[in-house]
Design a protein that fits this description.
Blueprint: H1 4-7, E1 47-52, H2 63-72, E2 75-79, H3 85-95, E3 101-105, H4 110-116, H5 124-130, H6 132-138, H7 141-144, E4 155-157, E5 167-172, H8 173-179, E6 190-191, H9 192-205, E7 208-209, E8 212-213, E9 215-217, H10 224-235, E10 240-243, E11 246-249, H11 254-268, H12 281-290, E12 293-299, H13 305-314, E13 320-323, E14 325-326, E15 338-340, E16 346-350, H14 357-368, H15 370-378, E17 385-388, E18 391-394, H16 396-404, H17 406-413, H18 435-438, H19 443-452, E19 456-458, H20 472-492, H21 497-514, H22 516-533
Parallel strand pairs: 1-2, 1-3, 6-14, 9-12, 15-19
Antiparallel strand pairs: 3-16, 4-16, 5-12, 5-13, 7-8, 10-11, 17-18
Helix pairs in contact: 6-14, 10-11, 11-21, 12-13, 14-15, 16-17, 20-21, 20-22
């Protein structure tokens, strides 16, 4: 769902240099390195061990890392996860052998265990004493990320509501111009009936493309979340079904059945590729690149290299662009193609093994600050950008280097490599914090923002409401999830509408037998507690 391959990639790990933390503010621009009293020699630096579940294997030695050390006097020894990061987190917790700082997913089942076991220290007093920039930048987010005891145990990463949408019905713009020229610019939403007609017209007009059998629509079988997320967006469906104030699984919304029956009809009419369910991500991208595919649901950035190949072969309009499709009875402004959490993806916490919590919070404060954010995401003034009339202007060659070779540029420059305490949105000058991604958008991005931007909605209220890991209810929740995932694909590929309905009914019956209502009780209890903690109902 989320552009993590590009927006969240963080090449972090391995070795580290030395440094030391001084207690100066984040915005004085001075070298804050301490000196030993009497002999005027620099003290041995403090090195913090840092586990980041997103790391890839780069040392903390690039230009941005060096500037962080110069500004704060601190060095990081980043621990690279070997194998599954979730398993590593569980092992660290069981042994008590965890580093000074842990960066983990907010959705990881271990998060609650780290807090309840006392592995993470509460941050409130540290923020009050050393986190003036944290308080200013995070604002109300600090209230919303509090634990149920009312204290903050971590700072969110990628927080603040991202204004970019996510999903759309991806269609080749030049082919759509042939089939429905009045819809090609995306300014007028399509109806689900429009989509069905266009797919049929494409199939009739283009039996083959460049000698290959044409495909009206394919789907990435390895990413059913994106497929269903796109169709859910058409019907305005959200994380849960709000049934008169009670949260239930989304599949219990009558509109969910209507949605799946629509997808099933497209499948039965031969408009969706028959073998989509076994298609892997790389295979899906390769199919798009051949030029034989007209459409696919998904996040607008997902085609990646597939769109790159199409653009190279046939120009800008040969690419798959995201379009808003609206179901019957749904207000176009109430579509939900952009599920985004204002509370972000990651949690960054100080562990009880940390011998320097005050110095660590000062580092947190600098990186959270406006100055720190621009260092992480823009680089250094005079090297990576200049300031003209109060506005930052990226060096043109540097900006182009991200387009030519993203990974190499990140690795060599350090810009957008260390992604901690990241705030979505615009800086005080009205410029995006995320310069490499958002300063200069491509044509696909621009259409998504223009025509699907009003479909963005905040998922934060519903994030992570399922039972805590390790409980019997968590096992029940997993069984229910498995039933839903297996059944939805079966509904889509059913040979008749009657069988699709029967499969859907069987899914609801199996969910009930598995104990879905017990899970929903916990979901509602957690939701109620959350709203009270946030100052709501």
């Amino acid at each position: 769902m989320i552009k993590k391959n590009r927006w969240m990639s963080v090449g972090i790990t391995a070795a580290l240099a030395a440094g030391l933390l001084a207690g100066c503010g984040s915005n004085d621009g001075k070298d804050n390195t301490n000196q030993t009293a009497g002999d005027n020699k620099k003290e041995e630096p403090i090195t913090l061990t840092w586990f980041d579940s997103n790391t890839k294997g780069e040392p903390f030695t690039d230009a941005v890392a060096q500037e962080i050390t110069k500004k704060t006097g601190i060095s990081l020894s980043i621990q690279q996860p070997t194998g599954n990061p979730t398993e590593k987190l569980s092992l660290m917790l069981a042994s008590g052998d965890y580093p000074d700082v842990v960066v983990m997913s907010r959705g990881d089942a271990s998060l609650d265990k780290y807090i309840t076991s006392g592995a993470f220290v509460p941050l409130d007093e540290l923020i009050e004493k050393y986190g003036s920039d944290v308080k200013e930048m995070y604002g109300d987010t600090l209230t919303k990320t509090r634990y149920k005891d009312g204290q903050n145990y971590y700072l969110a990463n990628w927080y603040g509501l991202d204004s970019d949408p996510v999903f759309g019905m991806l269609m080749r713009k030049n082919l759509l111009s042939e089939l429905a020229p009045d819809k090609a610019d995306g300014s007028t939403p399509l109806t689900t009936d429009d989509l069905e007609t266009i797919l049929k017209d494409f199939k009739a007009k283009h039996k083959t493309i460049d000698g290959k059998e044409s495909v009206p629509m394919t789907m990435n079988g390895e990413n059913m979340g994106a497929n269903l997320g796109t169709f859910k967006g058409m019907w305005g469906l959200k994380t849960y079904y709000d049934n008169n104030g009670k949260l239930q699984y989304d599949v219990k919304d009558p509109k969910y059945r209507e949605m799946l029956l629509y997808v099933n009809r497209l499948y039965r009419e031969g408009l969706i590729e028959k073998e989509f369910a076994i298609s892997k991500t790389q295979t899906w991208i390769q199919k798009l690149a051949t030029g034989a595919v007209f459409s696919s649901p998904g996040a607008y950035w997902d085609p990646g290299n597939g769109n790159g190949a199409l653009k190279k072969d046939g120009g800008v309009d040969n690419q798959l662009f995201p379009y808003k499709v609206v179901a019957p009875g749904t207000d176009p402004a109430q579509t939900t193609f952009g599920p985004r959490s204002s509370l972000g993806w990651d949690a960054i916490a100080i562990t009880k093994n940390n011998k320097h919590p005050e110095e660590t919070m000062k580092l947190f404060n600098f990186l959270s600050s406006d100055e720190g954010q621009h260092l992480l995401l823009w680089g250094q003034e005079g090297t990576n950008y200049t300031v003209v009339d109060g506005k930052r202007e990226p060096d043109p060659a540097f900006l182009q280097s991200f387009k030519d070779n993203w990974d190499d540029t990140v690795k060599k420059s350090g810009v957008r490599k260390w992604l901690w305490f990241i705030k979505n949105g615009l800086d005080p000058n009205g410029q995006p914090y995320d310069m490499p991604v958002k300063f200069q958008r491509n044509e696909v991005d621009e259409m998504a923002i223009k025509n699907l931007g009003d479909s963005v909605w905040d998922t934060a209220e519903y994030d992570n409401l399922t039972p805590d890991g390790g409980t019997p209810e968590a096992l029940t929740a997993q069984k229910v999830k498995d039933i839903m995932e297996q059944s939805t694909t079966r509904v889509i590929i059913s040979p008749t509408e009657a069988e699709a309905n029967a499969t859907f009914d069987k899914m609801l019956e199996d969910m009930k037998k598995a104990g879905d209502e017990k899970v929903e009780e916990i979901i509602n209890q957690k939701h109620e507690e959350r709203m009270k903690l946030w100052g709501g109902k």
